[in-house]
Model the fold of this input.
Amino acid sequence: MANKATRLLNTQPSVIASAAVGGKKENQGPLADIFDKINDDPYFSADTYEQGESHLQKQSILHCLEKVNLQPQDIEVLFGGDLLNQCVGTTYGIRSFEIPYLGIYAACSTMSEGLLLASLFVDSGITANAMAVTSSHFCTAERQYRFPLGYGGQRSPTSQWTATAGGALIVSAHSQPPYIRGCTIGKVVDMGVSDANNMGASMAPAAFDTVKTFFEDTQMKPDDFDYIVTGDLGKVGSRLFCELMQQSGTDISDKHKDCGLMLYDPETQDVHSGASGCGCAASVLCGYFIPKLKSGEIKNILFSATGALLSPTLNQQGESIPSISHLVWLSNGTTV
Done:
């Protein structure tokens, strides 16, 4: 499989701990119970929203380490990133830990990239313990990518709500579920979508390309998995993703779960097309899916978080919005 995007891991490393941290709106949604900590203060007791997001990441890491009685010095490499310029949410959040750090950026698919890289490092023997962390914050993302917070503009029906949430996990050589069985490195996909208020439409083709590649590379089928989980496609993107899979001859409609449709209640919370942001997929993976995989309630999932590689400057210059999706196969066992 040397020339393929998919890699099946020889040692099948374990996710030994995960943690999710959220904000007030996340606590009002249907997944409120998955969070290790909820912050009602959007500033996270800091002076600015950006500093608050760094606190959010720090909380995610500390809760994750505490669950397995590890210290920062026990982590040999940390993969982290966020949506802010220069990934400052992460760099300022982790600077006191003195953990060897590799900054990454894959927009809202950052958790799947971080998990993928951590798994490859452990599987290859480079490290024994690797961590992945990411976050997003409604206020920091809104004023960086869209409008000033006080603008009060009307949001379109296709727009999504950036989650104020974060997630962290530790991948280790320990032999315990859930295991990382394989991964598919995504490609940049651009179908010409230029509407910055319709992230789902721009990201759906990337999710389709990556999931389709995994099935082609492995010759596996959707029936081999409990769920095929995407990051934050929302209503519009989820529909397009399922349609693209159907057109390619693979029906995944009864297997598909989207974190962006799970995090909030569309009937009681005004989120339009659903949730988005790095913290959306990260918190749902770390707080919901990993515990269910660990307990055996779920046996196998494909986690394919999605990211819109949006530059407001280039978008205003008439450029389209490329997207990417990286995939990780997580399992309760070492055989299907």
Observations:
- The chain is about 35% helix and 20% strand.
